[in-house]
């Protein structure tokens, strides 16, 4: 019996360790969801003092928080469109086209991912200041910065999807007298679309979540992460955890439903 | 937030057109131009302007303007003043990277080989915590590591933490936070390279009388090296420049170089801040090059 138990543990030890690590990763999420129902006894309370629905029913109660969320959504949305468009075009060029300077293009995409945020943020600030925009830092400078750091992630994501595409599907379409335009919109684009969608979701969450680069280039504007940062010094309203929980469940819902959708489609086509 | 933090993904899969099948002509350049232009104007040129800002005369200010005096002394001054924070950043980031590797490897291994039908669910679980804000998650560590929380109670109970000991506002808290925040950047590339290993190689190892541990050491580890290299870089680089964990979970004795740079910018000392930023970037580039050279892999992008 003992031997069998030992073998079972031996077989599953890696899985158990893996699950423990996952637990470590989820611990703060439990806290965020729990604290979204907290009824804090004081402004600087660090413990769960009592259960209430109040925070969920009055999410915009803390002054300025919902404005910050709205600003972050607006920037996230525009940055996603910009980065996804530019990045997708670049990914197509990298996978499908011949040109001189391929390695330069690869280095260009890799570098922003390999630079610490504080360096990217401070160099953009240096550019804006020396170009005389020190007084006009705000919405547009944040947007420019966000498109810049999302771009590389879009290129990498779409490139991976495009590289995994069987070129014979397009050749088949051409054999069936589809012209290049039709082949692209009827065959290539639908097949690459999941990659583009993943890249867009990633861009939005990167943009919505960014603090270090935004903080340097935002002027007087306050995005949601900047609001949280400010609140961390003054005492955190529990509504911040409501926004955190909503973000979490919304994203989880999107990911799981796309997974289910793809499985169902795979079953239909199979 | 980091699904694509795996640039080691199936970048060049089998089905990709061979280079000679790629289309020629101007279309490639046209597709490439907008993104390249954006990166040139808002990534490369800013780097140049950062370097030039770092050489301004530090006696200027935003209002009066700076004069370009080639003030190399900025580098010497800031390095001698903030060397402690600089070294601390490298050490914290190094420890956190090592911790991420130790935690991330079993998790990535379990997902790749042991999870079976739960594989996709576990992958979603790796990235799921990152759907909520970085700052909010870091703030919730303040609670987990707080003096009244059960973690501190347990550690006091088993004597690992003195009666008066704290977890919050210690170097340990900062490193825990960094490890936590950058763990998916380690797990995803590790998973990507482990997943490519044919499980039959494990059986072959066992058939040749290798113990599971020997098989792991001689087969799995070498084959997963590209993932290890990519993962450690993707963890170490952002960790070295981070200041959020040091600010929210640390104390004045745990400030990192990111805090210093941000504070100098806030205080209007642009040339000094720029000089430190350039130094950080240069240090990282040198370390990365040495590391890649040692690890002997170029399969990064």
Automatic annotation (TrEMBL), chain A:
Entry keyword Cell membrane: yes
Parts of the chain that traverse the membrane: 12-37, 75-95, 107-131, 137-162, 183-208, 242-261
Record key words, sorted: Cell membrane, Membrane, Transmembrane, Transmembrane helix, Transport
Domain of life: Bacteria
Record localization: Cell membrane
A matching Pfam family: BPD_transp_1
A GO-annotated cellular component: plasma membrane
Major place of residence: membrane
Domain ABC transmembrane type-1: 69-261
Keyword Cell membrane (UniProt): yes
Membrane topology summary: Multi-pass membrane protein
Gene Ontology biological process terms from the UniProt entry: transmembrane transport
Entry's family note: Belongs to the binding-protein-dependent transport system permease family. CysTW subfamily.
Protein name: ABC transporter permease
Lineage: Bacteria, Bacillati, Actinomycetota, Actinomycetes, Propionibacteriales
Automatic annotation (TrEMBL), chain B:
Gene Ontology CC: plasma membrane
Tagged with keyword Transmembrane: yes
Residues spanning the membrane: 29-51, 90-109, 121-145, 165-192, 219-240, 273-292
Membrane topology label: Multi-pass membrane protein
Gene3D superfamilies tied to this protein: MetI-like (1.10.3720.10)
UniProt keyword terms in alphabetical order: Cell membrane, Membrane, Transmembrane, Transmembrane helix, Transport
Location in or out of the cell: Cell membrane
Every ABC transmembrane type-1 domain range: 86-291
InterPro entries the record matches: MetI-like, MetI-like_sf
GO biological process: transmembrane transport
Domain of life: Bacteria
Coiled coil: none
Pfam family, one: BPD_transp_1
Family the UniProt entry places it in: Belongs to the binding-protein-dependent transport system permease family. CysTW subfamily.
Name this polypeptide is given: ABC transporter permease
Species this protein is from: Nocardioides agariphilus
